[in-house]
Write a structure and sequence with these properties.
The complex is a heterotrimer of chains A (about 290), B (about 375) and C (about 525). Chain A has about 290 residues and is mainly alpha-helical. Helices cover about 70% and strands about 0% of the residues of chain A. In chain A, helix 4 packs antiparallel against helix 5. Chain C has about 525 residues and is mainly alpha-helical. Chain C has a single domain, classed as Cytochrome C Oxidase, Chain A (Up-down Bundle), CATH 1.20.210.10. Chain C has 16 helices and 1 strand. Classes of the chains: A mainly alpha (about 290), B alpha+beta (about 375), C mainly alpha (about 525). The interface between B and C is large, with 104 and 98 residues. The complex binds heme-A (2 copies), dinuclear copper ion and copper (II) ion (CU).
């Protein structure tokens, strides 16, 4: 049996500073949000920004440290497996995060809205909302004065379809990039990753455009009742994840160009690609359940 | 409750039965067929658990006494026995099936949805119940009637402390009464143990429940879903009357409501009269949130003392009180209070606690604002 | 072979901890982090406990005497939240940090820096949460289950901070759980196959899985709340097509597994302690593992047993009743296995064993009342009464808390290298045992007699038992001072402990000297 070293990192200040940053962000965001609609600016915004700034510094510092350790060859195969397990379970936790929102969507579509509209076991609830009829997409919520429904919803066969194609192909290009790296063809890998990033950016721009249309032309907003609420929470959190994924892709591509990865050691890059696939799969679910059905 | 069962339960707890005369320690048997089957289920599962417990703890206790090191007992080596392990998977499973059958049967009975002889809509408000008899044109609120002084330990507490209301729900005995439960603000839950009815009242939805009570009497319960500050002060009282008495009650209630309405409207109210009546209404309906002295609770319930709305234009003030503010705890009082009460409470607010505007708001003004002549 | 190195090269590995405060702030050592978690948990146990005593003091007699209803509701809410997220969960994570690497022969946790981060988020999260008590409008007052719309439309402004605090706790738990899973799956000493792992490790593995599966769901539901409160959505508002009950479904999809998160590690602890003091191998190791797994799987499909009265359709009601009842089967297997372990053992009754035995009996009583609650038609009578309060305190206090206390006594010699005072430990046990039963047993009675939970004042017929419960609570609470005193004395001037202070103890942790050196298992032991 060969002797492996197991690397136990020395003390680090990053974690506690990162906790402080989280605290500042949470406290700042809390005061900012609570101050919304009130007169004057709250200090919340500054706290939030300060926290975010500290967080960015921490992330850079922390990752730089990890990268340098990894490049010093301090890590072992076992360490690599730990990272893999870690990333895998992290993605699982993200899956469950989205599961909560999908669950909400299914619940309102299959149960709550029909009940309010007079169908099913609790259909008697319709007594409280006379004249309300259940449809999905829900264009006129039970109390349309309070929650004016959207005039129309987004057609799946235009931007969303394009976006689906974009994301699916980006998954392929990302995989091709990884494959190229495994064959030690670094510039080729960088090219594929570049294409992936470009696809991601186009996707994001189209999403933004779609949101703009939704707000200005369709009246599809957060206030538009449960359709708008589920639409924006699902696509919104997905969009945030794509943004994060794109940022991480940019970072690993830069690292690739700086020669941080080789055919054997490239888990940082692989992890980002896993993440990208996950974001992609979520999108397919969205396309199916939010846009088409 | 029947002391027998309580006694048995108490015996199981290891204390002596005579102590328990005044103590209620078990589920009431109740006064409906459903409540009796629930009670039976409760006792059945209770005894099943006791039996399992006795065997289990018996064996354990025996081992603890006998197999001690201090007695020189040497440990045995066994640490597996597939047969036993399967056995104590299967036996509990069998017991559970045995429990599941009567439980399911009772549940299905509870979910019986046939039309009743009478339908009452029950609406939970922070912190009172509203009973609307859908076929009888009767509609009223039911408030806690325990005086504040008892709650604050200033006077002796009455027998039905916290379980008494100004106007109970009245229903006929022997009839199937259907309840449609909903809420105006947050979730409440309407519970009367003796009827074994507990159902949440959920804003925007209607839940169904029903009961058929055999014995006339007064049955008490409470709100059982945390609904804010005065959740503990929101009792349910049901008065079950024999059919004939119930009919009398219906007639009397309707007549009374009519009379009160016309009498109040005909009258020309002076400022002092409005203030006096307004104070009562205020303490009854508003002080739970805005506090007796109108000082409110910072950041939760605004102070009315010196409030811009209360000292501002009358029309806006009426608007707030009559229609409430959507999505806040401030309810629409137009459907809770009559024109006179609204006029009185608004007048009171505008003149109490140093607001001293001297304004007199009349029932006529209210009716005008509400768009009815 | 694996050996451990640190950044400064292999010599540094033999160094002790960094001097002064920075040892605790910046540490990556699993033992230090374990200690931090345990101390944190004990502090919050005191805070949550003092709140409980305030509740009990107000309920000592009918009438309002000490606090106003709004403050009472804040106390109930904060007590529940702090005990669950601040006392029990961090205590178990602390125990995992200390014990898992020792028990599987690993030099440390798989991701040590992440480990430190998981811990340090917690004090900040609770600072945020507790600070709401001093905010205008008061702290969260909607119960630890924060049902909408009481927690959205009708909530005090501090709900925003509450939401962010929950987010922070979620991040901490998820990272902690990921770390534990990675450690267990990847860092076992050669030869330690999964089915040779100590049961404590097995139970934590499954708990960590539950955590990763449900904490994100909690994060999701509080996010929806945030949007409902501040950004005009209508998830939990029928006026826009949502449903307040949707909140409860999502919450309990998290909440029910959450209660098993608070008991599975306890099962693991008991499965270590009982064999030690019975001097006999645990009975039915394999069925213990399968039973834990079965409980975890079932826990995802029983959530609506907390919602029997919300007006579920009949099929739903039946489904959730049956699945809930099923959980008694695997749990029973565990109980029976423990009793079979005791049977024909050679028992001694040191403090950890006393707490473990009390756990078996009192947890079972709590399980029985759980089973009664599972009978939907009967739950119509029990729901939201003190019967439920009795149920969950039986599984949580003489359940989770007793197991934590037992673990503390059991492993304290290994952690500190010193023995605690056995007599004082036994006195602590008996006072706790009597106190706990005096507090929570009468709650069954007042619950059945009809006292709703979450009320600051009650009708006269509940008075006697409430008084008993309050007295018991003070007895139980103050007996915990003995525990603290005993630990402090042990750390400062306890008698030296041998490597294996319990003669029936087996497992890698007992092969190490006491106290366990700062860095352990740098060369992994072989397990056969
Ligand atoms: C550690 C935490 C923990 C644990 C382990 C449990 C275990 C169980 N719980 Fe409990 N529960 C809570 C914590 C816990 N619970 C909390 C905190 C609440 C309230 C939340 C709130 O509203 O604030 C709650 C509420 C709660 C309710 C909702 C009550 C209501 O609000 O109306 C229900 C209903 O079904 C329930 C059921 C059960 C069941 C069936 C088990 C089972 O797992 C128990 C299984 C164990 C046994 C049955 C004993 C041993 C078995 C045998 C000896 C085998 C043979 C036995 C038989 C065949 C009978 N629990
Ligand atoms: C693990 C969780 C846990 C634990 C350990 C406890 C412990 C205790 N709980 Fe709690 N409880 C909950 C979880 C827990 N609880 C939950 C989830 C709720 C529901 C909340 C809700 O409805 O939203 C609840 C609700 C609840 C209620 C119902 C409140 C209501 O409905 O309004 C009551 C009432 O008696 C109560 C009492 C107690 C008592 C007396 C203890 C005692 O065991 C505590 C004893 C401990 C101490 C006192 C601290 C330790 C003491 C020292 C270290 C010594 C120093 C102390 C002093 C000097 C005072 N709890
Ligand atoms: Cu209404 Cu509680
Ligand atoms: Cu549960």
């Amino acid at each position: 049996m060969t002797t492996q070293t197991y690397y136990v990192p020395s003390d680090s200040r990053w974690p506690i500073i990162a906790s402080l940053a989280l605290f500042l962000m949470a406290f700042g965001a809390g005061s900012l949000i609570n101050g919304l609609g009130r007169e004057g600016t709250s200090p919340g915004l500054y706290l939030l920004l300060a926290g975010a700034l500290v967080m960015v510094v921490v992330l850079f510092g922390w990752f730089a440290h990890v990268v340098s350790e990894s490049r010093l060859g301090l890590y072992s195969a076992q360490m690599d497996r730990s990272f893999r397990w870690g990333m895998g379970w992290f993605i699982f936790s993200e899956v469950m995060f989205f599961a909560a929102f999908f669950g909400a969507l299914f619940y309102v579509r299959v149960l709550a809205v029909p009940w309010l509209g007079g169908e099913g076991e609790k259909g008697i609830s319709n007594q409280l909302w006379q004249g309300f009829e259940a449809h999905w997409p829900l264009l006129s919520p039970p109390d349309s004065a309070q929650f004016p429904g959207p005039r129309a919803v987004i057609s799946p066969w235009q931007i969303p379809l394009v976006n689906t194609l974009l994301l699916i192909s980006s998954s392929f290009t990302a995989t091709l990039g990884l494959g190229a790296l495994q064959e030690a063809r670094r510039s080729r890998a960088a090219a594929w990753l570049g294409i992936t990033i470009a696809l991601g950016l186009v996707f994001l721009s189209l999403q933004l455009y779609e949101y703009h249309e939704a707000y200005t032309k369709l009246g599809l907003t957060l206030h538009a009742g449960i359709y708008g609420a589920t639409f924006f929470i699902l696509t919104g959190f997905h969009g945030l994840h794509v943004t994060l994924g794109t940022l991480m892709l940019i970072i690993v591509t830069l690292r690739l160009l700086k020669g941080h990865f080789d055919a054997q050691n490239h888990f940082g890059l692989e992890a980002v690609i896993w993440y990208w696939h996950f974001v992609d799969v979520v999108w397919v679910g969205l396309f199916l359940f939010v846009y088409i059905l | 409750m029947k002391p027998v069962h309580g006694g048995l339960l108490f015996l199981a707890a290891g204390a002596s039965p005579p102590l328990l005369a005044a103590w209620e320690v078990n589920l009431p048997i109740g006064v409906t067929a459903i409540s009796r089957s629930v009670h039976d289920l409760h006792m059945l599962i209770f005894w099943v658990c006791v039996a399992i417990g006795v065997v289990l703890f018996g064996i354990m206790g025996w081992a603890l006494v006998r197999h001690r090191k201090s007695k020189g007992f040497k440990p045995h080596k066994f640490h597996e026995h597939p047969g036993l392990e399967v056995l104590w998977t299967l036996i509990p499973a069998a017991i559970l099936v045995f429990m599941a059958i009567p439980s399911a049967a009772t549940l299905i009975e509870m979910y019986d949805r046939d039309e009743g002889d009478l339908t009452v809509r029950i609406t939970g408000y922070q912190w009172k119940w509203r009973y609307t008899y859908l076929d009888e044109e009767i509609d009223f609120f039911s408030n806690l009637s325990t005086p504040q002084n008892q709650i604050n330990n200033l006077t002796e507490k009455g027998d039905n402390y916290l379980l008494e209301v100004d106007r109970p729900l009245v229903i006929p005995a022997g009839k199937k009464v259907r309840f449609l439960l909903t809420a105006n603000d947050v979730i409440h839950s309407w519970w009367v143990p003796a009827l074994a009815v507990k159902k949440d009242a959920i804003p925007g939805f209607i839940n169904e429940a029903w009961t058929r009570v055999d014995e006339p009497g007064i049955y008490r319960g409470q709100c059982t879903e945390l609904c804010g500050r005065l959740h503990g002060f929101m009792p349910v009282v049901v008065e079950v009357k024999p059919e004939a008495e119930y009919q009398q009650w219906v007639a009397a209630t309707r007549a009374e409501a009519e009379a009160a309405k016309s009498a109040a409207q005909a009258k020309d109210w002076t400022l002092a009269e409005l203030m006096a009546r307004g104070e009562t209404v205020y303490q009854q309906s508003c002080s739970a949130c805005h506090q007796a002295g109108g000082e409110g609770v910072p950041n939760v319930f605004p102070a009315l003392k010196g409030s811009a709305v209360v000292t501002g234009p009358i029309a806006e003030h009426i608007e707030v009180v009559a229609f409430g503010k959507t999505n806040t705890a401030m309810q629409a009082f137009a459907d809770q209070l009559g024109a006179v009460d609204l006029a009185a409470v608004i007048t009171y607010e505008r003149n109490a606690w140093g607001n001293d505007s001297g304004d007199r708001v009349t029932p006529a003004q209210i009716n005008q604002a509400l768009g009815k002549e | 072979m694996t050996t451990a190195t640190t950044a400064e090269g292999s010599q540094a590995a033999h160094h002790g901890p960094a001097p002064g405060l920075s040892r605790w702030l910046f540490t990556t050592n699993h033992k230090d982090i374990g200690t931090l978690y345990l101390v944190f948990s004990l502090s919050l146990f005191m805070v949550g406990g003092v709140m409980a005593l305030l509740i009990r003091a107000e309920l000592f007699q009918p009438g309002l005497q000490l606090v106003q209803p709004e403050f009472f509701n804040q106390m109930t809410t904060m007590h529940g939240l702090i005990m669950v997220f601040g006392a029990v969960m961090p205590a178990f994570v602390g125990l995992a940090n200390w014990q898992v690497p020792l028990m599987i022969g690993a030099p440390d946790m798989a991701l040590p820096r992440l480990n430190n981060w998981s811990f340090w988020i917690l004090p900040f999260a609770f600072a945020l949460m507790i600070s709401t008590l001093f905010m205008e409008g008061g702290a969260p007052n909607f119960g630890w289950t924060f049902y909408a719309p009481l927690s959205t439309t009708y909530a005090p402004p501090s709900v925003t901070y509450f939401i962010f605090a929950v987010h922070m706790m979620g991040i901490s738990s998820i990272m902690g759980a990921i770390n534990i899973i990675a450690t267990i799956l990847n860092m076992r000493a050669p030869g330690m196959t999964l089915m040779k792992m100590p049961l404590f490790v097995w139970n934590w593995l499954i708990t960590a899985f539950l955590l990763i599966a449900v904490m994100p769901v909690l994060a999701g539901v509080v996010t929806m709340m945030l949007l409902d409160v501040h950004f005009g959505t209508s998830f939990f508002n029928a006026a826009g097509g949502g449903d307040p009950v949707l909140f409860q479904h999502i919450f309990w999809f998290f909440g029910h597994p959450e209660v098993y998160i608070m008991i599975l590690p306890a099962f693991g602890i008991i499965s270590q302690i009982i064999p030690t003091f019975a001097r006999k191998r645990v009975f039915g190791y394999a069925s213990m593992v399968y039973a834990t797994a079965a409980i975890a799987v079932l826990s995802f499909i029983v959530w609506a047993h907390h919602m029997f009265t919300v007006g579920l359709p009949l099929v739903g009601e039946l489904f959730f009743m049956f699945t809930t009842m099923l959980i008694a089967v695997p749990t029973g297997v565990k109980i029976f296995n423990w009793v079979a372990t005791l049977f024909r053992g050679s028992m001694t009754f040191e403090t950890p064993m006393l707490f473990a035995l009390a756990f078996v009996v009192l947890f079972t009583i709590g399980g029985f009342s759980g089973l009664m609650l599972a009978i939907a038609p009967a739950d119509f009578q029990y729901h939201d009464t003190y019967f439920v309060v009795a149920h969950f305190h039986y599984v949580l206090v003489p359940g989770a808390i007793f197991s934590i206390i037992a673990a503390t006594y059991y492993w304290l010699p290994k952690w500190t290298g010193r023995m605690y005072n056995e007599t004082m430990g036994k006195v602590h046990f008996w006072l706790s045992f009597i106190g706990v039963n005096l507090t929570f047993f009468p709650m069954h009675f007042i619950g059945l007699a009809g006292m709703p939970r979450r009320i600051p004042d009650y009708a006269l017929q509940f008075a006697d038992f409430n008084m008993v419960a309050s007295l018991g609570a003070f007895l139980f609470g103050f007996s915990q001072l003995l525990l603290i005193y005993n630990i402090v004395r042990c750390v400062r001037d306890g008698r030296g402990a041998p490597a294996r202070p319990w003669d029936g103890a087996e497992g890698l942790e007992w092969e190490l000297p006491s106290p366990a050196p700062y860095h352990t298992h740098q060369t992994p032991p072989r397990v056969d």
